[in-house]
Amino acid sequence: MRTETPRLAPLKDEEFNAEQDETFARFRNGGADHAIGRTFMRHTKLWRAYNALAAHTFSDDNTLSKRESEIVTMRTVWHAKAGYQWSRHVPMALRAGLKEAEIEALKKPLGQGKWSESDATLIETVDALTADPFIPDHVWTKLTTHFDDQQCMDAIFLCGRYVMAAMFTNSVGMPIDHDVVLDPDLDMRK
């Protein structure tokens, strides 16, 4: 979290026009009434385009396991200092099977965690992509040793999706939802 006051505040129900209300209804009714969706309602066409990729990452079409997806997501949003996404994904990571110690280790250099080779490779992949949008040969070799073509693509696009989301939530000053907690390490308002 980088600002005290949102630059683009999430819309309230009474601010929705008919199109926004119809678009957001499935998220509201499905238990996903979050600030990011309410803010996206300011641009419903962009939301629909973004949501197609976002939906893929949460569906069974994503060829990475839920645990692997959360490793990629959490490491990406940590590098992006995206308090909003981190706060939303901690409970999801726990449900996906990550332990609290692993979540904490995702904040630290790779060698400080106790990771399987495949998990370490996903972390190294994110580290490479967030430092320079390219996976070097030595990391690519590890990635393709542990993951098939579709899984490699899903890892790259999942990382990219969360970099893009972090750019949005960090820049607009997305407030943390009431049902999750901002990690104090990501409170950039100080």
Could you describe the 3D structure shown?
This protein is mainly α and 190 residues long. It folds into two domains: 13-59, no CATH class; 66-172, Up-down Bundle (AhpD-like). 61% of the residues lie in helices and 0% in strands. The chain contains nine helices and no strands. The radius of gyration is 17 Å and the shape is globular. The model has no long low-confidence stretch (mean pLDDT 96).
Largest sheet: none
CATH homologous superfamily of the largest domain, by name? AhpD-like
Low-confidence runs: none
* Shape summary: globular
Give the number of domains. 2
Mean pLDDT over the residues: 96
CATH fold category name of the largest domain: AhpD-like
- Enumerate how many helices there are, as a single number: 9
Specify the helix fraction band.
55-70%
| Name of the CATH class of the largest domain | Mainly Alpha
Strand tally is 0
Structural class: mainly alpha
